[in-house]
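As agreed, record passed on underneath.
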Amino acid sequence: MLMKLPVLTLALALLCLPAYASEEALIEPETALDKPSNVEHVEVKPSAEFPIDAENPPGQGDIACSYYQHVMVKQIDLGEKGAAQLSWIPIDAKGKKPTCAQQNASNEYVVPSDMWTGYYESAEWPYLFFGADDGSNGGMGFAVFNAADKKKVLEDTAVGSVESVSHDGTSAKLKYKRAWKASCSVMTEGDACWGKIQQALKLPAGGNIPNCADEYVKQKTDMAHMRCQSNGNDSQTCFENEMKNLDAQKWNESPSVIAYTVEVSLKGGESSVKPTGGDISCAPSE
């Protein structure tokens, strides 16, 4: 099965993020991959774990339970950045439907906050897809868990839309543009840095270095304008001074973020990433 997915998102919190960032929505569960047979909503009730106060008034907290053939995925959202809880309950062969409740079931797996925070996105059994709660380096982070063995099999950053997902019942493949942060700057280290990137990402040898200069200059210019505007000063003098300040802060030494298209294979609890060719872009990291 091969299908087109809606946009996997990128949050553009600052003007200095790479130009390939966008503010579109993450993968919508009802339009991507497996469609839930039902989604139930329950209001969060005040508790020691989920207090309801002036910042979280009654009626604001929501428990959303998405039901599939093999699993129920639960998200508790208090209206703050990132869900308060992400969890799932397996559905046995008899198909008995778990109750959508605030209290966790004995067989409910809760994703540890140090393993992933964000929001639930979609499913393609046995894989569950979760999006990040904020963008990073021009992309939006996401994670894929194998619900059957409770393991995170992939954590990555996508730019733009996930082009396709194919699934044969035992494995899955995703194709998307990936944002990867290097440990060096192509702007200041040139061929030496690009060689390290090619080796790390298994890019074909001999390929041309992407044009990093245009995006570094554009983002530096945007940042200088933003700083002046935030101070209520749009003068040319302010702009020139801020450009000098950014040069003094070694703007061009910011590690490069490389955006390139990949195909990711998921099988069981393992994942592998390989480049597929096509355009490669470059921008400074945050």
Summary: The CA atoms of residues 118 and 132 lie 4 Å apart. Residues 1-26 have pLDDT under 50 and may be disordered.
